[in-house]
Amino acid sequence: MFSQKLINLGLDMFFQQQIAGADLANIIPVRVINVHRSGLHLVGDRFDQQIELRTSEIQLQATVGDWLLFDLERKRLVRRLERKSLFKRRAPGSDRREQLIGANVDTLFIVSSCNRDFNAARLERFLAIAREATVLAVVVLTKADLVSDPQEFVAAARRLAPGVFVEAVNALRLDSLCCLNPWLQSGQTIALLGTSGVGKTTLTNTLLGEPVLTTRAIREDDARGRHTTTSRSLYQLPGGAWLLDTPGMRELQLTDVRTGLDDVFTEISELARVCRFADCEHQNEPGCAVIRAIDTGEIDQARLTRWRKLVREEALNRATIAERRARDKATGRLYKSIIREKKTRKND
C-alpha cells in the first residue's frame, strides 16, 4: 500500500497504522524536511514542495521530522500524525515558551568532544532529554585524534547513565565513523544534539560525503568552535538514514523530563525512594539514604550537586510553563466572552 520511498522516508508501522483504511485518493502522507520562518519543506511520494503556512495550519505545530497529511486538491494540510518522539526546550528569552526541536527521532547522537568542551553536567542534561523521549541515546565524542587517550573521555561518559552507548571518533574521517553504522540504517532518523563547536557540522558533512554545511575553525583561546548551523533540517545519508542537524543549544533548558532525570541518575533516584521522609531534600534530614550513600562513598558528591541543580531547573520550567498556559487559557476565555457580549448587544 505504501511506496518504498515513503518507507525510506521513515513511514514505519507506527505511522502506517494511523492512516490504514483512510481514503487517500487526494490526500498523501508527507514529511517535514525543513522548517522555515513562515513555511515548511515537505517531501512525500512524487512530492517535494515548500509551502507557506496558513493561519489554520500553524495550529498543527509541525516541526522538522513530523509526518503530515496533505490534501493535493485543496493544497492544504489536513492533520499531523501522532508522534512517536518529540524533543523540545524552553526557548531563549524571558517568556519561557516551549520551542520544538524535532519529532519522530529514532536515535539521538549526543555530540561532545575530547577536549575542554567535554562537560559531564551538559551530557547528563542531554541524556535526560533523550530518556524522557524514550529515544536511544549514543554519546559521540569527536576530536578523538587530538588527544593522547580518548578512552579517558569514553569512560567518563559511560559513568553518566546506565547502559549508555559511547563512541569516540575523528569526525573528519568516514572510516572512523563506521562504529555508528548500526544506528544509520535506511529509514531511521538520527538527531544531532550538542553545543557549538563540538563538531556536529563536521560530523554531518562527513556522513553525507559532501560539504553541505559550512564549518569554521575553533578559537585558539578556549578550544571552542564557532556555531554555523542556523536552521533545523533533515538530510538523507548515502545509506538511507535521515540526519537531523540542529543549531547549538547553549541555553537548553529542561522541561517535563523528571522521568528522564530519574533514569539518568538512577543510583540517586532509587535511594531517594527509601528516605525516611517522602519530601526529603537530601541535605541534612535524618534517615536520608542519599546522604548516607554520600558518606560511604557510594555516590559522588559532585554528581548529587548536579542532580539537585537539574531537578530544580526542571521543576521551575515546568511550573512557569504551566502558569503561562493557564494565563493563555484565561485570556482566551476573556476574548470569547467579549465577542459574545458584542454579538448580544448587536442583536439587541
Structure overview:
With 348 residues, the protein is α/β, with parallel strands linked by helices. The protein folds into three domains: 4-80, SH3 type barrels, CATH 2.30.30.140; 86-245, P-loop containing nucleotide triphosphate hydrolases (Rossmann fold, 3-Layer(aba) Sandwich), CATH 3.40.50; 258-328, Probable gtpase engc, domain 3 (Ribonucleotide Reductase Protein R1, domain 1, Orthogonal Bundle), CATH 1.10.40. The chain is 33% helix and 21% strand. The chain has ten helices and 13 strands. It has helices at residues 4-9, 13-19, 55-58, 120-132, 151-158, 200-208, 258-264, 266-272, 289-296, 301-347; strands spanning 27-35, 39-44, 47-52, 67-71, 76-80, 86-90, 98-103, 107-113, 136-142, 165-168, 189-193, 233-236, 242-245. The chain has a six-stranded mixed sheet, sandwiched between helices. The model is unreliable at 216-229 (pLDDT under 50).
